[in-house]
């Protein structure tokens, strides 16, 4: 009889649960039983582990073998348990010392030839291991950089099961040649898209296009700057070719770099999704996610047949989620965004369990005025009937739009704006510097509170703890009495006004800041300068 134990990690969303892997050998008819609520991919590890051991030169025990995964009540899935199961079997068969693996955390998939293959979710798994008190982790060699992001843990990367057995027995580890194609991106690690291909080519890309490339669009540029300064959601409405997509793609470049804690949070989500770029395990820039309008509700908010995986709202955590052609998305998918827009996370319930995924993103919606896109444009000759226009514009529900802080009409660019854009247009670097200063003012104001930017502060707190200038709310209260603003809308106008004041360098919003916030919220022109982001500069110097 032989018994051994080691540990691995089960992922529930982006949170890890430490699982004890136990192996028991008893006399009897040779059989391999795996218990502990495994899914199909984990149940198949019996065949992978047996083949990997035999092809690594080890003897498979001809006894009754039972492998248990504890706690048995936690659903477990994936191939990341293979390495722990194989080592537990080896220790129970006295091929390695059971005490040498008892305090090891093992994560990795086994190939039939004994190779140790990378798996998704190594970063959150190692985080869970450290929180549980483990200090030694064994991972596939190709994920060592990702696992090493977690402080306070010793990481051992192995290329094959043979190497691990030799290291556990204090023997010389054999040299393993690189697997064919090992230098190329692993298809399994490219689960949804390959980052770095440029905006719009994948579900989640990164890059910093220059804002100076955008011709005209003064009000929209101002709205973009305010959105970046306060973390406000943005709705861009205008004809095709006006620059809505260009503006959205340049928003991530205006956001400040992620802090270390934010980088780890975002990287953990991307690790579970399998889209961490090769050679760069830490995401240090705000992500940009732009799913196609045919995306399902599950692909947006997360889902799956078993335990849910992260969707676009989680992949855009601490970054930008851009929904181009927003009315073309299904109404069910759009309305599913309402909870994460308010809460900053998404809770998904399935038969296998309930998962909570982070989803604090900056939403940008873009839409045409009608199906043909020419409604309301000079000389546009729109072919749509009034009922078609109403039906198209009604696809964005009132409750969803009420959660959008900034609503901007993006007009077609004139020839003079297009040809004269080479001079005078502010660059991403210039605007990003103003955004950084505005966020620093907000962070100083909210020091000692759970909030850092204006969009995160509850309306009650903002109204009672940080007063605006006397009489500044008069116009907003008047709009609320006329039914142009809801109670939620009034709170959001107040948050936007604080962001406008932060960009202007003022200690608190005045009547001018509130008027600007109301215009950006309702789309009703109230004298906001049409000179783009220069409006913020004029405000800083006391201009209109």
Explain the overall architecture.
The chain is of the alpha/beta class and 544 residues long. It has 2 domains: 175 residues, Ribosomal Protein S5, domain 2 (2-Layer Sandwich), CATH 3.30.230; 322 residues, 3-Layer(aba) Sandwich (Rossmann fold). Helix content is 36%, strand content 16%. It is built from 23 helices and 17 strands. Strands 10-12-13-16-11-17 form a 6-stranded mixed beta sheet. It has a 4-stranded mixed beta sheet with strand order 1-2-4-3. Strands 5-8-9 form a 3-stranded parallel beta sheet, sandwiched between helices. Strand 8, helix 6 and strand 9 form a beta-alpha-beta unit. Helix 8 packs parallel to helix 18 and helix 8 packs across helix 21. The protein is elongated and about 85 Å long. The C terminus is likely disordered.
Q: Which regions are unreliable across 5 or more consecutive residues at pLDDT < 50?
A: 185-207, 528-544
Corresponding CATH superfamily of the largest domain:
P-loop containing nucleotide triphosphate hydrolases
User: What is the CATH domain class of the largest domain?
Assistant: Alpha Beta
> C-alpha Rg, in Å?
27 Å
Widest sheet: strand ordering: 10-12-13-16-11-17
Describe the protein's topology.
Blueprint: E1 2-12, E2 15-26, E3 31-35, H1 40-43, H2 45-55, E4 64-70, H3 82-92, H4 98-101, E5 105-106, E6 109-110, E7 116-117, H5 122-131, E8 136-140, H6 144-147, E9 154-158, H7 161-168, E10 204-205, H8 218-230, E11 234-237, H9 244-254, H10 260-273, E12 288-289, H11 297-301, H12 312-315, E13 320-323, H13 331-335, H14 338-343, E14 345-350, E15 353-358, E16 362-367, H15 386-393, H16 398-401, E17 406-409, H17 415-419, H18 428-445, H19 459-465, H20 474-481, H21 487-504, H22 511-522, H23 534-540
Parallel strand pairs: 3-4, 5-8, 8-9, 11-16, 11-17, 12-13, 13-16
Antiparallel strand pairs: 1-2, 2-4, 6-7, 10-12, 14-15
